[in-house]
Design a protein that fits this description.
Blueprint lengths: L1 H42 L3 H12 L4 E8 L4 E5 L6 E11 L2 E12 L1 H50 L20 H72 L3 H26 L5 E3 H16 L6 E7 L4 E3 H21 L7 E9 L5 E7 L10 H4 L2 H13 L3 E7 L1 E8 L9
Length: 432
């Protein structure tokens, strides 16, 4: 808008000065054209002709006063003078015999105010007509643009806003003749995009349905696997319990004390393994058990199997909860713990000696699992070496801890004995 106003202003100023200059130039040309006739009338002293010429020149536009004065001082004039008009004087010289003889003067005034007013009116009228034409052209352009572009863009926007993912609808058709222009290309692209989205949504729906079916089948298969594993663990535990019961019956029927003791130890080992399977099928995770709970129940089983009523030996358990272990780790750990506790019960408290056995389970700072068995019994004999002096039970502990669990076995003795087993809890990977 500012540029339009500036351009109109510059146009107005240019046309104003040009039109004014043109009018003044026309008056000057009139003077030059009439000067020969004025000189002829003055030379011949034809006053009537002189008056006619002056009155005729006074009728010319924008000349409000004109006068001719001869050598005798006579004045021939037309019009009336104004103080605000532009006055010009010219000496009238008649060429004669190679020289110019002054015959009089020509004075005239140009009505610059009327000239400027007429020029302004003319220019303003022209600018008004141009402005009107520009407004009409703009209105026509707006109406044409509204009909040819804007309403179609509105239809496109309405079609886009009403789009619902996954819902099919009729393709977009613009209310105009197809011309292959940008609007037609835009409508075709939009229809193509909607078809692609519908196809992609249908493909996604099919994929999700297939995924749900696969997930359902996988859940069913996993549930069947869990049930099967629970049944396997349960049957394994029951079979071990049956074997342990048979061995107990055999021990009761045997009259040999050594045989009875051996069978009793075998029963303890079998029940420690059966307890692992019991904990597994009772656990939510069919591959891991809580070692703390397992150690507590294992010690309870040893109490009921080896401690007679009235015995002065007690077994204390301090087991950290939350230490989970795989089957491959729990079974050798339980067997080794069973052997160490039974060994303390058999050899640390002879002659009905009273005392206590403390069983500990915890996790070290480096993540290693530590199982500790301490007793305040008579301790190991001087110079004891587990490889040389250890019986089957202790050698079994060494085999289980060092070779199967890849851990370490330490023992200290003096006033009692301390057994420390350490092994990694993540040695094996879950197979379930």
């Amino acid at each position: 808008m500012i540029l339009v106003i500036l351009a109109a202003t510059l146009q107005y100023i240019g046309r104003y000065y040009g039109r004014t200059e043109s009018a003044i130039m026309a008056i000057e040309n009139l003077r030059k054209a009439q000067t020969p006739a004025l000189l002829s009338a003055l030379w011949s002293s034809d006053t009537e002709q002189l008056r006619i010429l002056v009155e005729g020149m006074g009728l010319y536009p924008y000349i409000n006063f004109i006068s001719v004065t001869d050598q005798q001082g006579r004045i021939f004039f037309a019009g009336g003078m104004k103080d605000t008009s532009r006055t010009e004087r010219h000496v009238l010289r008649y060429p004669y015999a190679g020289r110019e003889i002054p015959l009089g003067t020509l004075d005239f005034q140009i009505d610059t105010e009327r000239l400027a007013a007429d020029v302004r009116s003319e220019i303003l009228l022209s600018l008004g007509v141009q402005s009107l034409l520009m407004i009409l052209a703009s209105l026509l352009t707006f109406l044409l643009f509204e009909r040819m572009v804007t309403r179609h863009l509105g239809r496109l926007a309405e079609h886009l806003n009403s789009f619902v993912p996954g819902k099919a609808r009729a393709p977009l058709r613009l209310s105009k003749r197809p011309r292959g222009d940008e609007l037609d290309l835009l409508a075709d692209s939009l229809n193509t995009l909607e078809r692609s989205l519908l196809e992609a949504r249908a493909e996604e729906t099919r994929a999700l349905e297939n995924l749900r079916e696969s997930e359902s089948a996988l859940r069913q298969s996993l549930r069947e696997k869990e049930i099967l594993l629970q049944e396997v663990y349960h049957r394994t535990k029951n079979n071990m319990q049956v074997i342990a019961s048979l061995l107990e019956m055999q021990a009761m029927m045997s009259e040999d004390a050594t045989t009875q003791e051996t069978l009793k130890e075998m029963v303890g080992r079998i029940r420690s393994m059966a307890l692992v399977h019991k904990k597994l099928y009772e656990s939510k995770d069919l591959s891991r058990i809580d070692l703390g709970e397992y150690v507590g129940e294992l010690v309870d089983g040893i109490r009921s199997g080896f401690l007679r009523s009235g015995t002065g030996v007690e077994i204390q358990v301090e087991a950290e909860r939350g230490i989970v272990s795989l089957l491959d780790t729990a079974i050798p750990c339980g067997l080794a713990l069973n052997e160490l506790i039974v060994n303390s019960l058999k050899h640390a408290f002879p002659a009905n000696r009273s005392g206590s056995i403390r069983v500990g389970l915890g996790r070290r700072e480096d993540g290693t699992i530590e199982v500790r068995v301490e007793d305040d019994g008579i301790g190991l004999p001087p110079g004891f070496d587990i490889e040389r002096n250890g019986r089957l039970g202790l050698r079994t502990v060494v085999s289980l801890i060092e070779y199967q669990l890849h851990g370490t076995l330490e023992y200290h003795f003096g006033e009692g004995t301390v057994w420390i087993n350490a092994f990694k809890g993540d040695l094996y990977q879950s197979r379930v």
